[in-house]
Automatic annotation (TrEMBL):
GO terms for molecular function: oxidoreductase activity. The keyword Lyase does not apply. Signal peptide: none annotated. PROSITE patterns: FAD_FR. Keywords: Cytoplasm, FAD, Flavoprotein, FMN, NADP, Oxidoreductase. Residues 20-267 form the FAD-binding FR-type domain. InterPro entries: CysJ-like_FAD-binding, FAD-bd_FR_type, Flavoprot_Pyr_Nucl_cyt_Rdtase, FNR_nucleotide-bd, NADPH_Cyt_P450_Rdtase_alpha, OxRdtase_FAD/NAD-bd, Riboflavin_synthase-like_b-brl. This is FAD-binding FR-type domain-containing protein. Its cofactor is FAD. Gene3D superfamilies: NADPH-cytochrome p450 Reductase, Chain A, domain 3, Nucleotide-binding domain of ferredoxin-NADP reductase (FNR) module, Translation factors.
Length: 421
């Protein structure tokens, strides 16, 4: 079979595809950072380049293509009555129209159907769209299933479809198993099953400190749906379960994030609760190397966690607070941690920022840049509001004037936010 419009398949070929630098990484370290029973599961990962090393900077982002559960892939293939050993031809649709004739056939890769499904079709984590249910209704042979699918695809069934599908995060495989009379041809499945997408993570290392390596700080995602079904994040669970001794090669792509690399002469105000500390681990490593060979501006860092059990990189931060570390008084720096659950009254990074109001204001007057990273829920707006309060108080200005001052800071490239959900 030839599936011309299938997927952009290859991780190793067409290395400039979509203008992203691609490489293969080998995991050399998988270290849990949180204690058992803490309620959070965060891991530190270290990777080595096994293909040509890619140049990256602190603040950059690494995208990883996750692997799906092989048993679930086999179940999907069996459910759809597909031959896992059938050879298919994959062609990049985007490249088809403008490749010279002499190269037209070089992008076609004979591949087993099972490999194609495993690497390109997200059958184990993504929820299908409404059109998937509409097409399923045409292939349903059981009348009650056909009626249910038609209802889900109708405007009247939109709310019930949302409750059944998106809210419960049902996978393609689960949906197909709920409607056993449906047998969709492979060409429809290829078009309608969501593509397996890469997952993006903030890089938590500096290439100056770790040549030929890249590090990540990843929270293992898990949650419970409204109907008490356990769900987990595909990529984070897969990474956490890998054994560095297995020597698995991981396809990865580097891209620029929202946090530009700061020059050593710029003072930094960092706010990174939880895994928001990830990019700042690289910032701190790099500033430490820069300060050992010449003058470097100070850093103050506001970190937040629930208690000592999820105090990520505790020894690293505290070591940089001693002697001539980048957080030490001698260097003009500071490290402030907010424990939200350690004491009866919750303390967040905003409270620690207000305690250091004068110091923050002085650094801002010294042309400091602000970097904020972490959860995209309330944290970024709460931190912005706290900065408004600090500027208003220390600068003896109205709240509106303080907000305008911060917006000017943002336009000047001195206020950066990287947030994720």
């Amino acid at each position: 079979m030839q599936l011309e419009t299938a997927r952009s398949m290859s991780a190793g070929k067409l290395s400039n595809y979509n203008n992203k630098a691609v490489c293969f990484l080998k995991m050399i370290k998988n270290q849990p950072l949180t204690k058992s029973g803490s309620g959070k599961d965060v891991h530190h990962f270290e990777f080595e380049f096994v293909s040509a090393a890619i140049e990256y900077e602190v603040g950059d982002v690494l995208e990883i293509l996750p692997s799906q559960d092989p048993a679930a892939v086999d179940t999907f293939i069996q459910r759809c009555n597909l031959d896992p050993d059938a050879l298919i031809t994959v062609q990049h649709k985007e490249m088809k129209n403008y490749l010279p004739d002499i190269h037209k056939n070089t992008t076609e890769v004979p591949i087993k159907l099972r490999t194609f499904v495993e690497l390109t079709m997200d059958v184990t984590s993504a929820s299908p769209r409404r059109y998937f249910f509409e097409v399923m209704s045409y292939f349903a042979t059981a009348e009650h299933e056909k009626e249910r699918l038609q209802y889900f695809a109708s405007p009247e069934g939109r709310d019930d479809l949302y409750k059944y599908n998106q809210k419960e995060r049902r996978t393609v495989l689960e949906v197909l198993e709920d409607f056993p009379s449906v047998q969709m041809p492979i060409d429809w499945l290829v078009q309608l099953v969501p593509p397996l997408k890469t997952r993006a993570f903030s890089i938590s290392s500096s290439p100056l400190a770790h040549p030929n390596q890249v590090h990540l700080t990843v929270s293992v995602v898990s949650w419970t749906t409204p109907y008490k079904r356990k769900r987990t994040g595909l990529c984070s669970v897969w990474l956490a379960g890998l054994d560095p001794q297995q020597g698995i090669y991981i396809p990865a792509w580097f891209q620029k994030g929202s946090l530009p690399r700061p020059p050593p002469s710029v003072p930094l105000i960092l706010i990174g609760p939880g895994t928001g500390c990830a990019p700042f681990r690289g910032f701190v490593e790099e500033r430490a190397i820069q300060s050992s060979s010449g003058p470097a501006a100070p850093i103050i860092f506001f970190f937040g966690c629930r208690n000592e059990d999820d105090f990520l990189y505790r020894e690293l931060w505290l070591s940089h607070s001693l002697n001539d570390g980048v957080f030490s008084e001698a260097k003009g720096g500071g490290f402030y941690v907010a424990f939200s659950r350690k004491q009866p009254q919750k303390v967040y990074v905003q409270h620690k920022m207000l305690e250091q109001s004068q110091r923050i204001w002085n650094l801002l007057l010294s042309k400091a840049s602000i970097y904020v990273a972490g959860s995209a829920t309330k944290m970024p707006s709460d931190v912005w509001s706290t900065f408004e309060e600090i500027v208003s108080k220390e600068g003896e200005a109205s709240r509106d004037s303080a907000a305008n001052w911060l917006k000017a800071l943002q336009r000047a490239g001195r206020y950066h936010v990287e947030a994720w959900s």
